[in-house]
Amino acid sequence: MLGWIAWGNLREDTVPDRAFSTLNSGSLAEGEAAGRLLQEGYSVLRSPAFRANMEALQSRYPVIYARPSQQAIDPKGVAAVIALEQLGSRFAPAQAAIVEDNGALLGAAGEGGTSGRYSDVLITRGVLAAFGSPDLVTRSCAVNVAAHEYAHTISLTPVGYRVAFSDTNEVRREIQDRRHPGTPVASYLVGAVAQCTWLAKQGRIGPGDVPACVEVFGTAAFNLSRCGQFAGGEPVALRPGLAPAVPPL
């Protein structure tokens, strides 16, 4: 019986274009905007361009923190997890909600309340507002957040919730017991690569500019304060005068 349930869950949870199972929002307009953001974040993760851009970082970031039991994954390994290549892995269906901003919180995701079957994904209204910006780089930062949270919905098992990528939470603001301090954190690297892949798709940067863009927005934390610093059409690359980088988690 358990195997039959697992097979049914896995078949449903690996549907390529399924961005969420439910979405709670404050209004119809907000729900529609949130649906577009979540779809963008999910779709870019499942795209061939995302995988190519992630794997192209192999020599730049050879050691990446994924979770306490996997602290030395590489970009090809991250791409394989996102592509659900491990037998039984899945995106746990997202029960998404739009919530009020809460200090530094941009979003959150993790196991839902139904025995590991679903995940919960929260996106704040500030992130949703950024997605409505006329500036593509600011909009891309919302895509970063959505993709980052989707990374936390990947379970390595069809039954239960064995999270593929973990980082911090409201209580624990630093990653404990790092064996390789200062290396990229997979969930943040995923967000940055998704963001820059999306910018390349929009024509705001060239395909070859993705690594420089990833460096701008961070691989071990999210450099949120830089999101509005390219509204004049500047190249999305490090330059003097940018807001300081957030210290690695």
Secondary-structure blueprint:
Layout: H1 2-13, E1 22-24, H2 28-45, H3 48-55, H4 75-82, E2 90-91, E3 94-99, E4 107-111, E5 119-124, H5 125-131, H6 136-151, E6 154-155, H7 186-201, H8 210-217
Parallel strand pairs: 1-3, 3-5
Antiparallel strand pairs: 2-6, 4-5
The succession of helices and strands, N to C, reads HEHHHEEEEHHEHH
Overall tally of structural domains? 1
**Radius of gyration (Å):** 17 Å
Strand order of the largest sheet: 1-3-5-4
What this model shows, in words?
The protein is an alpha/beta fold and 249 residues long. It has one domain (2-226). It is 37% helix and 10% strand. The strands form two sheets. The chain has a four-stranded mixed sheet with strand order 1-3-5-4.
In short:
This protein is an alpha/beta fold and 249 residues long. Helices cover 37% and strands 10% of the residues. The chain has one domain.
List keywords for this structure.
249 residues; four-stranded mixed β-sheet; alpha/beta; two-stranded antiparallel ribbon; 6 strands; 37% helix
